[in-house]
Design goal:
18% of the residues lie in helices and 21% in strands. With 408 residues, the chain is an alpha+beta fold. β12 and β13 form a beta hairpin. The radius of gyration is 24 Å and the shape is globular. The protein starts with 5 loop residues before the first strand and ends in a 10-residue tail after the last strand.
């Protein structure tokens, strides 16, 4: 997805106030674009795209750019409307709080090219990514970051799951821990990052982690009935991932919504708790952590102090509401991970942000204990679900059956 910024000048020569800072269109790479509000002729109410790739961009963001940044003239592409419409727009801007929304309402010709911004998309890019080392890749559906020596986080920021897969390199071969949504070509992406032979292993087999499995010949899987069933593929779950409000920006060129599905894949080797995968001068230990799903696992790189936690832990609401979720098993699994905390330097989860401190592992146990003991009040989420929040740890769970959830 390319980037665009929107500046404005009303007939009264008033520029957008800080309250216009809320993004109406969010983009993870917007932070890289120098921009400012551009003052143009007052006879026009003028929108200005600040992006050299504007020809390819149909979506626009509104924000309060930093003051004083110069921009190349070639980046300024004015789109003018009539003076009568400018007066209407100027009146709209009397309320700065509503300026962004009303402004778009005043220009219906631009709305045709817009998509409504999902709420989850607005805070992006997440500030934690500023501290990570980005890796340039050709496919803009993905963002790639080097999070540890010979470890790449493959992030899909344009879909609401914000799923993260990991490419872990050894001397002789590489392991791809999850294959993401299957919306774009993760096999092609990994070929840009390494020429090593590839083995695929999933943190679990929910659709958002196995979408690219079918592209690979050497796929490992946990020896569970849940894994075997999901390897048959699914259409309904995949279609739900691209429903309205699930996509932030454009889908990849050539993507066909109608035919999108989780394709079946073949499991070449079945694994069990405690198995080790030798990549050559790097060994990964399989730790069975059922709970989120029956086949959930973590990977431990003991030599480098890396713990890949899949959906057992990530710094966002942890999903514990699905029919296959076992809360007792989850409790036992996170206790097992907490016992490993002294050996771990970095925790790498599968959604939203790829890095966390190992000190979160014992706190995860404490938070979950508090929830199960009834010490944390739930707040309503979507129908049939509630949120439990303990400091910075959040669980999305089934609503209690025996007591109503109080709304605030």
């Amino acid at each position: 997805m390319e980037r665009a910024s929107l500046g404005s000048q009303c007939e009264s020569r008033q520029t957008f106030e800080a309250s216009l800072g809320e993004q109406l269109w969010s983009n993870h790479e917007a932070r890289e674009i120098p921009s400012r509000v551009v003052k143009l002729d007052t006879r026009y109410f003028t929108f200005v795209l600040l992006d050299p790739w504007w020809q390819k961009q149909s979506s626009i963001i509104a924000h309060q750019p930093p003051a004083g940044n110069d921009i190349p003239t070639r980046w300024i592409v004015p789109m003018k409307i009539k003076k009568r419409e400018a007066r209407t727009a100027a009146r709209c801007f009397q309320s700065a709080k509503m300026a962004a929304i009303i402004c778009l309402a005043c220009i219906p010709t631009l709305l045709h090219a817009q998509s409504e911004t999902p709420p989850w998309c607005r805070p992006l890019p997440r500030p934690e990514y500023r501290k990570l080392a980005p890796v340039q890749v050709s496919d803009k559906w993905f963002e790639v970051y080097r999070v540890a020596p010979a470890v790449f986080a493959i992030y899909e920021p344009h879909q609401s799951e914000e799923v993260i897969s990991y490419l872990i390199l050894g001397r002789n071969r590489a392991l791809l821990f999850d294959t993401g949504m299957g919306i774009s070509d993760i096999k092609k992406l990994t070929a840009e990052l390494t020429r090593l032979p590839m083995v695929v292993l999933n943190s679990h087999t929910h659709d958002d982690h196995v979408g690219g499995n079918w592209q690979f010949e050497n796929v490992y899987g946990m020896d569970t009935a849940f894994t075997r069933k999901n390897a048959e593929g699914s259409r309904a779950d995949a279609q739900a991932e691209i429903a309205p409000g699930e996509i932030c920006g454009k889908l990849p060129a050539g993507f066909d919504r109608k035919t999108y599905e989780t394709r079946p894949w073949t499991i070449k080797t079945f694994l069990h708790d405690g198995d080790r995968i030798d990549l050559g001068e790097r060994s990964l230990e399989v730790i069975a952590t059922p709970g989120h799903t029956p086949d959930a696992i973590c990977l431990l790189d003991r030599a480098n102090g890396l713990l890949f936690t899949g959906d057992t832990y990530y710094p966002a609401p942890i999903w514990l509401f699905r029919p296959e979720t076992d809360l007792d098993a989850y409790d036992a699994s996170i206790r097992r991970l907490a016992a490993l905390a002294p050996q771990v330097k970095l925790v790498l989860g599968a959604h939203n942000v790829p890095v966390a401190s190992p000190e979160v592992l014992p706190r995860l146990v404490t938070a979950f204990e508090s929830v199960r003991a009834g010490k944390v009040a739930p707040t309503p989420a979507s129908p049939g679900k509630v949120i439990y929040k303990v400091e910075d740890i959040t669980f999305l769970m089934r609503a209690p059956e025996n007591r109503p959830v109080q709304t605030k």
